[in-house]
């Protein structure tokens, strides 16, 4: 049967046994483990995106959940797993690559439309079923699209904060980045971070809604604002962080042990005061945001970069 395969570098699932090129990943054990976890949580379909918690196009190995689960390493895609099916959606740049990397556990869907994913899910999951995802890996916009696609179908879109792929991946999952976060010299930045903060505060004042805070979730936004760089993602000079900037305070959520001494000094030179950067643990962003949102406040955020998980702690 191998010889019969016209192109031996792509899979052929129509023969028995199926032909898989050496580039394909065997995902049987991973899928079985994920399905066991899904059953334990009462979940009928689980959606796995190709992004990280900051909607980055390029991601760190640690965040490559779709890549680990499917074997497919393209930069854009969505996987959906049910108890008896698994499918991957990706665009035309990656169709050939997917046929080389996927094994026959996976159907390849040659589109990226959320409507198409929604229709597939409605066919695969009975009425009354739970469709689940990690709310910290989907932007507000994308969450709303899924919500619309499943609306009125009798299925429930259920955010679950434990990432099921991470659970199954376990201690095989690569560790978080630990390299140094450093300041860019003024020659490269154009303006100091203090000037940039003043500029944003001015925009807040002039905005018709008079926001009391700006939340920055995109990694390049925080890197730009503070003139800091890192290498948490290969070939991308960024680091994992969130920023909450108000009229009088600046909170930077980051693993502060990684800040170079000069960077920390630059951030805290104006302490205490409105140009003092308070360093908080990266993992506390959501708790802090929820606490801040209890007051009489208006938070300005981007629907494309902010995750539904963060957005959902802010009252209407």
From TrEMBL:
Sorted UniProt keywords: Aminopeptidase, Hydrolase, Metal-binding, Protease
Cross-referenced InterPro entries: Creatin/AminoP/Spt16_N (IPR029149), Creatinase_N (IPR000587), X-Pro_aminopeptidase_P (IPR050422)
Entries under Gene3D superfamilies matching the protein: Creatinase/prolidase N-terminal domain
GO molecular function: aminopeptidase activity; metal ion binding
One matching Pfam family: Creatinase_N
Residue span(s) of domain Creatinase N-terminal: 30-162
Family, per entry: Belongs to the peptidase M24B family.
Name this polypeptide is given: Xaa-Pro aminopeptidase 2
Organism expressing this protein natively: Aptenodytes patagonicus (King penguin)
